[in-house]
Specification:
Layout: H1 7-14, H2 17-39, H3 43-70, H4 80-96, H5 105-134, H6 141-170, H7 176-201, H8 217-221, H9 227-257, H10 264-276, H11 279-289, H12 291-311, H13 320-354, H14 359-388, E1 394-398, E2 401-405, H15 411-438, H16 443-458, H17 466-479
Antiparallel strand pairs: 1-2
Helix pairs in contact: 1-6, 2-6, 2-7, 2-9, 3-5, 3-14, 4-5, 4-7, 5-14, 6-7, 6-10, 6-11, 6-13, 9-13, 9-14, 9-15, 10-13, 11-12, 11-13, 12-13, 12-15, 13-16, 14-15
């Protein structure tokens, strides 16, 4: 199917990233503290849950990529999973935030592990085909950048909403347990509806090849043989690991170092709301200056904000944390947007290198890497808190209203909070700068590659003349 992408269809497709952006933010900011302070799991066990789930993801994400590449239906290769996923998202998100109550720590651990694995499986079933389709919703360079930029506007808007609103919903209820359940239901429905609309109203524009891929390990890892994609994966993991480490520890940082727990939502809002309006700026800069140069500029702004954060003390004026959060947010947006603008270009390289388009396999690895970054972010923070001697709060019920009594933390916990919230992200930013400097796909290269692939598709992948063969070899040498 080659008809032109309409604005309505592009916006409908882009809305799917309400789930991709928002769900992970809620988990990153609130899930660890929910497990330690509401469910009552030790930090080490909470971190172990998400680490175990990555073992399953290492199998399920690449496998889902192969499954969606091999799906043949009248709805396409990607869309059938959106219909089933729209139901699964609601169920999985509610189970994830169910405040299981039991005297047995082993039972609480088992339930949390089950619910997290179930959620992770549903996320894989939806996001792997969705990410693959983002490279196939259009084959035009500018049009594809537009729809992926729109995706990331929805993602960052959802990020801001998911940072600000969950605790406000929780606080509406006298029972924090009820509050978390209602919050999960509200956001589960919000995240699910767009996928039903995509199923009904979006088109896949790359025809499925007649030949189906074999289910073997070499197919899972084939995208990683491509240098351009490896560089993208490195940039992507470094960006999101830095984001997820800060997200997982930030509630503790506000509660116990700055001693301003009531302002957590508002500081996160300053961090995430303003960058939503910068998404078009990032896309425009990427189109004009190149994606690698643009991400380098934005992560340098991010680094400046982290350096300011490392100097911050509770004695600074009340507004200082908001100003620092704004600077960090203006830098982080580049790390959120640019990797997904790079992704469709690397799937084009994959088609050139592998002789067929297997966007699902590329998407499976990207989805795995995103969840791996989130898991390691939570695991790192939970392990540091466990070693440092974190003391969880006690829940008191007075006149039917539950409240948390926070304890003063040992000096080791405070030192750990200050170190982790800035030190590791700064190291990762250096990694991003190094990898971005080596990224080879410019706008000119991408347009040249797109034109070459269009000619090859017309001839079933066979070059028509010697000049085309030389061009193929030249691009392979540069990009793979």
């Amino acid at each position: 199917m080659t008809n032109k992408l309409t604005r309505r269809e592009g916006v409908t497709f882009a809305a799917g990233d309400l789930f991709g952006g928002g769900a992970q933010v809620i988990i990153s900011f609130y899930y660890l503290i929910f497990l330690t302070d509401v469910v009552g799991l030790r930090p080490g066990l909470a971190g172990l849950v998400v680490l175990i789930s990555r073992i399953w993801d290492a199998i399920s994400d690449p496998l889902m990529g192969v499954i969606t590449d091999n799906t043949r239906s009248r709805f396409g290769r990607r869309k059938p999973y959106f219909l089933a996923g729209s139901i699964g998202i609601v169920i999985a998100f509610v189970l994830l935030w169910f405040p299981v109550a039991s005297e047995s720590a082993a039972w609480r651990f088992a339930y949390v592990l089950f619910s997290y694995l179930f959620y992770s499986t549903i996320q894989t079933m939806v996001m792997v085909p969705y990410s693959a389709m983002s490279a196939e919703i259009s084959m035009d360079y500018t049009e594809r950048n537009w729809v992926n930029g729109m995706r990331l506007m929805f993602s960052t808007a959802s990020t801001a909403l998911s940072a600000l609103v969950p605790l406000e919903i929780v606080r509406l209820f006298s029972s924090v347990q009820t509050g978390y359940l209602v919050m999960a239901l509200v956001f589960g429905v919000l995240f699910a509806i767009p996928f039903l609309l995509i199923f009904l109203g979006a088109a896949e524009r790359v025809p499925a090849p007649d030949e189906r891929s074999q289910f073997d390990l070499s197919l899972f890892i084939a995208p990683l043989r491509i240098r351009s994609f490896r560089l993208l994966v490195g940039i992507y993991v470094a960006c999101y690991l830095a984001i997820d480490v800060v997200s997982a520890i930030f509630a503790y940082y506000m509660n116990y170092y700055l001693e301003r727990p009531a302002e957590l939502n508002y500081v996160i809002g300053a961090l995430l709301v303003v960058p939503v309006f910068l998404v078009p700026v990032v896309v425009r800069m990427a189109n004009r200056q190149g994606k690698a140069r643009t991400i380098s500029l934005f992560v340098l702004i991010w680094a400046a904000g982290l350096i300011l954060l490392s100097l911050l003390t509770p004695a600074w004026p009340w507004w200082a944390i908001y100003a620092v959060a704004l600077v960090i947010g203006c830098g982080v947006i580049g790390g959120i947007v640019i990797p997904w603008l790079m992704y469709p270009d690397t799937t084009d390289v994959g088609e050139l290198a592998l002789g067929k388009r297997v966007s699902g396999s590329f998407s499976g690895i990207m989805t795995l890497m995103r969840k791996t970054a989130g898991a390691f972010g939570i695991f790192i923070v939970s392990t540091v808190l466990e070693i440092a001697g974190y003391v969880p709060p006690v829940t008191e019920v007075i006149d039917g209203v539950s409240s948390e009594q926070l304890f003063t933390q040992p000096d080791g916990v405070i030192i750990a909070l200050r170190t982790v919230v800035t030190g590791l992200p700064l190291v990762l930013i250096v990694v991003i700068l190094i990898l971005a400097a080596r990224y080879p796909i410019t706008k000119q290269v991408s347009e040249r590659l797109g034109a070459l692939l269009a000619r090859l598709r017309e001839r079933d992948g066979e070059p028509s003349d010697e000049q085309t063969r030389r061009e193929i070899e030249e691009l392979k040498q540069t990009l793979t």
